[in-house]
TrEMBL record:
Belongs to the trehalose phosphatase family. GO terms for molecular function: metal ion binding; trehalose-phosphatase activity. Residues 241-265 are annotated as: Disordered. Its cofactor is Mg(2+). This is Trehalose 6-phosphate phosphatase. Pathway: Glycan biosynthesis; trehalose biosynthesis. It comes from Cupriavidus yeoncheonensis.
Length: 265
């Protein structure tokens, strides 16, 4: 894969949260946000004239909690929640979700290594602390969805989620790209999970840059080793956009620094 250049002022920047901005934790509520990250996201948001959005499987209210005091444009629950600006959150309905909860709660009670996470219009079963139960979790989700309408299961990193059908991060990015201030910019999306592939597909179609955080098979066009490397890239990009690069940000004379923006890769 080619190297990852820095961000330019005409970029539309989309960022996943868990495993991308923040390192994964045994349980979602234990995630830690690097103190410097919030300031960097604020500067990027300002330098990009507001064309920065968080695109995550988490509900928007949780993203706001971890990134406070920021209130960024965001797509939560893989796009089932959308906030383009201000405080208003548009939400896709999840008909028939509540009857599926009791059998999933019973499964979690029988297996303490599992964790049930309730969201506004979705529910997820995490098995990070019991990876040997992956097959059991997938079978249980398939069973409760057998007679459900308008819902679907989505597997991810050590998790299977039930959410409104036909919703994905690619559609969320498309929605943002059709509205200001994102429209007409070169899109960039960074994510780590298989659930981010729909976003990478849309980014590729739009001629933008998909950034895989980690190593696996992907249609993303570039990759970084992990969240720490992604955060370092964001910090360097913010300093460059401010016009104040640090000493470690200066490229060698024989390797001029390229920048992200439009279709520069």
């Amino acid at each position: 894969m080619p190297p990852l250049p820095l961000i330019e002022p005409n970029t539309a920047l989309f960022l996943d949260f868990d495993g991308t901005l923040a390192d994964l934790a045994p349980r979602p509520e234990l995630v830690q946000v690097e103190p410097e990250l919030v300031g960097t996201l604020r500067r990027l948001y300002e330098r990009l004239d507001g064309a920065l959005a968080i695109v995550s499987g988490r509900p928007i209210v949780e993203l706001d909690y971890f990134l406070q005091p920021l209130c960024l444009p965001a797509a939560g629950i893989h796009g089932a929640e959308l906030r383009a600006g201000g405080a208003r959150v548009e939400m896709k309905p999840a008909p028939g979700l509540e009857p599926l909860i009791p059998p999933l709660e019973a499964l979690v009670r029988r297996h303490p290594g599992l964790r049930l996470e309730r969201k506004s219009v979705a529910v997820a079963i995490h098995y990070r602390e019991a990876p040997e139960l992956e097959g059991l979790v997938r079978a249980a989700v398939a069973d409760v969805l057998r007679d459900a309408n308008g819902l679907e299961g989505m597997p991810g990193k050590m998790v299977v989620e039930i959410k409104p059908a036909g919703i994905n991060k690619g559609d969320a990015i498309t929605a943002f790209m059709n509205m200001p201030p994102f429209a007409g910019r070169g899109p960039v999306f960074a994510g780590d999970d298989v659930t981010d592939e729909a976003g990478f597909a849309v980014i590729r179609k739009l001629g933008g840059v998909g950034v895989l955080v980690g190593q696996r098979d992907t249609i993303a066009s570039v990759s970084v080793t992990g969240p720490a490397a992604l955060r370092c890239w964001l910090h360097r990009s913010a300093r460059a956009l401010d016009g104040t690069p640090g000493p470690d940000d200066l490229p060698p004379a024989s390797d001029p620094r390229r920048h992200l923006g439009g279709n520069s890769l």
